[in-house]
Amino acid sequence: MKEWDLRKLQILRALHDTGTVTAAAAALRMTPSAVSQQLAVLSKQIGAPVVEARGRGVRLTGAAQVLLRHAEVVFAQLERAGAELDGYARGDAGLVRIGTIATAISRLVVPAAEVLRTAAPGITLSVREAEAAEVYEDLAAGQVDLAVSLAVDAPTARDPRFVVFPLLNDPLDIALPLGHPLAAAPGLRLALLAEEPWIFGSRGPWREITLAACADAGFVPEQAHAAADWPAIFSLVAAGMGIALVPRMAFTGGLRRSVAVRPLDADRPRRRIVGAVRGGAEDAPLLRRTMAALRQAAELDPTVKFN
Length: 307
Fold this sequence. Notes:
This protein has helices spanning 6-18, 21-28, 32-46, 62-90, 102-119, 132-140, 205-216, 230-238, 253-258, 285-300, and strands at 51-54, 57-60, 94-100, 123-129, 146-150, 162-176, 197-200, 222-226, 244-247, 260-262, 270-278. With 307 residues, the chain is of the alpha/beta class. It is globular, with a radius of gyration of 23 Å.
């Protein structure tokens, strides 16, 4: 029976995720030569190459894909073992590191922390803000224990590395300058704003969400300004320079007073917010309590809906 080295399997996984030996080495805090040496040893162990050249990078061979598929099961089982040991060792006390998008902090993570402060005061949350896709990267790298981010960037259900669970649907409203002719119009529809100058990011999930919502309304928005920071977007709208779709979770009192924010009840555009943990870790007592607190915080928020 072959004896498996978990470190070599972790290198194989990192190589699959990053596509280059250099990037895999950086992710694992190793030198590229050490990674190459370990891959060579692994190839010799299984009797077949584990990587082959592909452009400037490398890709896993068929033999390596078979090995990685089984390795993911092993990694998930080790996560379950760690979760069970964690339950015996710490119970309802310990640290949970949460990676989250900025707009979820005040509406989900902070209320969840308040729930835990009452129900399980021994649990401490450490919050790490990141962009939507980076949250999942941090989770995969083990830098956080739980992710709260956009569903548009979430891993698929077929990815064994993660378990994804729904939290809420955040309505998208339209932000207009205070003096805009449609600022007080009843039954406002996105289609009525097709000729307006629009403000949204030049890349990333918010650009995709905006374009998708407008496409559902039958038009392609003309991008007048590229901005991704919510205060910057509200400032541009307040100055009469354009309009923008904005998630309800992004509103604060000061921002809301500077523009006319109107719901789009007929179109009902939404963005989905989900949580995620690494596969096998969903049974850890600390994570179960934290996941439940996030769900409770989502249910308590009157500004968002689940359907």
